[in-house]
Amino acid sequence: MIALPKLALDGVSMVFDANGSRFTALSPISVEVQANKFVSLIGPSGCGKSTIFNIVAGLQPPTAGRVLIDGADATGLIGQVGYMLQKDLLLPWRTVLDNVCLGMEIRGLPLKEARQRALPLLRRYGLSGFETLYPSSLSGGMRQRAALLRTLLVDMDIVLLDEPFGALDAQTKAQMQEWLLHLFNDFGRTVIFVTHDVEEAVFLSDEIHVMASRPGRVIETLPIDLPRPRDRAIISSPRFVAIKKYCLDLLRLEATENASASIAA
Amino acid sequence: MTSKSTTFAAAPIAGVWGLFFRSARAPRPGKRRLPVETEWSTALVVCIQTGLLAGLVAAWEICARVCVIDPFFWSLPSAIWATGVVYFTEGNAVVDISYTFRSTLLGFFIGTVSGGLLGLSFWWSRNYARVMQPLIICLESMPKLALAPLIILVFGLGLPSKVVIATALTLVVSTLTAYAGVRAIDRDQEKLFYSLGASRWQVFTKLVAPACVPWLISILRVNIGLALTGAIVGEFVASQFGLGRTILYAGQTYEIALVWVAVFVLSALSMIMYAAVSWLEGLLRRGAYG
Questions:
Q1: Quick one: fold of B87-289?
Q2: Judgement on whether residues A119 and A202 belong to the same structural domain of the protein
């Protein structure tokens, strides 16, 4: 008896036709994500990670294939998943609190009620004292926290995170990863996470899809069987190091193959 | 021993470097400090400003009295002052000022608001924006003041025609500014809204309109000047009241002192409105960003 996957990509592909030349951003891929799992997509830039996110979020219709959420066709539907883009995209004219409330407001919740719901969470997740400030006076890490809370508070089962910590310095990044795991434990969502950082992916995920570019495709799916809850110390455990090395080797191999292919061509 | 050998080794190398490079360099300047200007006190600056102004007025008066400049065309500060007193006590200063003031403010308000809304409306459809864009640019490049006589014919001699001219001047600028604001909106920001399931109306009210507010605020000061220009030109063409009409009338009847009085009153009016709009701008900016 296999549980119905929370999210399934069924032969989703994306081909761009730009003045006569066809560019395959995504060759047909099929991926299943089980509920309450943390899944990462890693791969070189241009491998179609962001394209997958745009398709799942309904912002871009795929050339072929379907997106299934809880088994129901959700291809091209917006507002079915929480989506956090690379930039925090906080509105400069709204306070941190009101920015966090944006998603709920769009869902039709009155602002007052949304504030009541958001306030305790801001306090709990490291943004207390920042509620009435404007985003311009926040550090990068704090802005990302606000952006992530905004995404989580929309109450979507599936959350897409597109390199949320890409622009942060190493120390803040480590802090944010632990913070995210903390949130993941509390909220129990299905998270799909895009990153360039292999260590980050291994540390956070239950499963990693390694992708390759030209055309964008999934070349390997790795289950990460490290125990949860995870502590930073796990990074130096032999198991962790082995998985990380394996991922890096996969990516390196792919990169050299691509390079030799382009030299041959 | 070791330290000695290093010094020996280093010295000739430095010498060689010196031979080849020192001489090639530009000569070093002498000791020079960062130039710093000592700041005068505000009181001193104000004193000098007042003195300059007084000197200028005195020079005008003296030159006109000894006929270095023709007092018929240039008038005298003393005559201007006397005319000003009469204009305010017996003439229709209040009527003129309020007339010009009203047409300016109305034109400013109507032009800015409707121009802003028109600019924002382009967000709704890219096709509509593409159709409208050349028309707006045509309007922008057209000298709108050249239409003033026509506008007077259509809208009559009264206040409405002045308001229309002031509006015409401010409308196009506001439209273009608001449209620039619309185009500056981050596509990713829109993506975020849509990913949250937002309707177009929600994106418009919660993203597009607020994002364009700073753009419109920045145009307020320009617009108040334009609106005043429009109102004055309208009065020049044909009017029964207003400061512009007073200037024209006084000029035609060679009452040069009255021309100057009206010009000074107009300048004062302009400064007051400019200050008020600057204050409003500060208020709005604080409202928009806490």
A1: MetI-like fold (1.10.3720)
A2: no
User: Could you read off the pLDDT of A145-194 as tens digits, one per residue?
Assistant: 899 899 988 888 899 999 988 888 888 899 889 988 888 888 888 999 99
Which SS3 state, helix, strand or coil, does residue B58 take? helix
A245 and A191: one domain? yes
A76 domain-assigned: yes
Query: Cα–Cα distance between B1 and A106 in angstroms, integer?
Result: 80
**Helix A96-106, helix A140-152: angle, nearest 10:** 20
The answer to whether the CB of A149 falls within 8 A of the CB of A125 is yes
Residues of chain B with C-beta less than 8 angstroms from the C-beta of A102 = 196, 206
Q: Which domain holds residue A90?
A: 86-155
CA B119 to CA A261: how far, in whole Å? Answer: 50
Domain ranges (residues) in chain B: 45-74, 87-289
**A106 interfacial to chain B (CB closer than 8 Å):** yes
Q: Are A236 and A230 in contact (CB under 8 A)?
A: no
C-alpha distances in Å from residue B80, one per residue of A217, B87, B96: 84, 10, 18
Tell me: the pLDDT tens digits for B30-77? 888 898 889 999 999 999 999 999 999 999 999 999 988 888 888 999
Q: Any CB–CB contact under 8 A between B210 and chain A? A: yes
CB A11 within 8 A of CB A64: yes
Contact (CB<8Å) A106/B193: yes
Tell whether B288 lies on the interface with A, counting CB pairs under 8 A. Answer: yes
B210 closest CB neighbour out of A81, A93, A133: A93
Whether A141 and A178 map to the same domain: the answer is no
Give the number of A-B residue pairs with CB atoms closer than 8 Å: 63
A91 and A76 part of one domain: no
Inter-chain touch A78–B202, beta carbons under 8 Å = no
- Please indicate, yes or no, whether residues A111 and A208 belong to a single structural domain of this protein: no
* Any A CB within 8 A of B194 CB: yes
Answer whether 0.95 is exceeded by the pTM: no
Q: Is residue A1 part of a domain?
A: no
Extract the tokens encoding A54. Answer: 């745009």
Say yes or no: A55 and A183 in one domain: yes
Domain boundary among A155, A183, A204: A155
CATH of the domain at A42: 3.40.50.300
Q: Are strands A207-212 and A217-223 parallel, antiparallel or unpaired?
A: antiparallel
Q: What is the ipTM of this complex?
A: 0.88
